[in-house]
């Protein structure tokens, strides 16, 4: 979906979102309250510039608008794979963005992510997955790593990974599989404005994704392992 049509659907009471070189920023009206909006469009590759711009908007909201909700609109092909970005420390810029979102959450800002087109790799991890809850449109493309790249990294034949993807959502792309794993809270099919309003009201800073993944049958061990580690840490 085009971001302008998406904004109209999400904020029928009005918004002032603008695009600058694939970076989205502004505010919108949701259920009588103003929310900050940041995001990307055009399958943006997240380089140092966009990562820093997003972080700046988050910090500006924390300073000027205490506890205002933040909505992250996600359309990214992941981090930009350029020598320049690597030399400048793109990993540090993206970590800075994640830290800024965590700071906002600790200061009482509710954070909601929405994947409306494409979400890949680190560009997704440090944006939508840093939200209190992340949602997706049905046509969204979501994956951390494509199967060909996964085959090269793991040395597992691509044919075997393709077979595994048929029954295991960890290997398979798509919003439905991320819903099963708990990474996506819900897939929005209709009335986006109402869905967004409910999502903001229900935003919970406690991370429940691994528990949701276990409940939905998409991740069988993540919650059990984290609980075992937590229990061990609490043991004198």
Q: What would you note in describing this structure?
A:
The chain has 236 residues and is α/β, with parallel strands linked by helices. It has a domain at 3-137 and 188-205: 2-enoyl-CoA Hydratase, Chain A, domain 1 (Alpha-Beta Complex), CATH 3.90.226. It is 45% helix and 22% strand. The chain is built from eleven helices and nine strands. It has helices at 3-10, 48-64, 83-88, 90-106, 121-125, 147-154, 158-165, 175-181, 192-202, 209-215, 222-234, and strands at 18-20, 23-30, 33-40, 44-46, 70-79, 111-120, 133-136, 141-143, 186-187. Strands 1, 2, 3, 4, 5, 6, 7, 8 and 9 form a nine-stranded mixed sheet that branches. A hairpin with a 2-residue loop joins strand 1 and strand 2. Helix 2 runs parallel beside helix 4. The longest helix is centred in the first third of the chain and has 17 residues, at 48-64. The radius of gyration is 18 Å and the shape is globular. It starts with a helix and ends with a helix. The model has no long low-confidence stretch (mean pLDDT 90). InterPro entries: ClpP/crotonase-like_dom_sf, Malonate_gamma. It holds the Pfam family MdcE.
């Amino acid at each position: 979906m085009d971001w302008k049509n998406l904004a109209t659907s999400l904020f029928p009471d009005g918004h002032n979102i603008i695009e600058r070189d694939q970076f989205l920023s502004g505010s919108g009206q949701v259920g009588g309250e103003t929310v900050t909006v940041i995001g990307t469009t055009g399958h943006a590759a997240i380089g140092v510039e966009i990562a820093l711009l997003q972080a700046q908007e988050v910090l500006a909201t924390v300073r000027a608008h205490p506890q205002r909700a933040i909505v992250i609109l996600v359309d990214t092909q992941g981090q930009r794979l350029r020598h320049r970005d690597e030399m400048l420390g793109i990993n540090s810029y993206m970590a800075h963005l994640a830290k800024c979102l965590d700071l906002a959450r600790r200061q009482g800002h509710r954070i909601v992510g929405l994947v409306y087109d494409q979400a890949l790799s680190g560009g997704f991890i440090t944006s939508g997955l840093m939200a209190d809850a992340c949602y997706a449109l049905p046509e969204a493309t979501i994956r951390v790593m494509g199967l060909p790249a996964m085959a090269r990294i793991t040395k597992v034949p691509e044919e075997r990974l393709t077979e595994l993807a048929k029954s295991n959502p960890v290997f398979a792309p798509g919003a439905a599989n991320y819903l099963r794993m708990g990474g996506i809270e819900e897939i929005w099919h209709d009335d986006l404005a109402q869905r967004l309003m409910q999502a903001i009201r229900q935003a919970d800073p406690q991370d429940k994704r691994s528990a949701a993944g276990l409940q939905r049958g998409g991740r069988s061990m993540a919650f059990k392992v984290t609980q075992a580690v937590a229990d061990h840490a609490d043991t004198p």
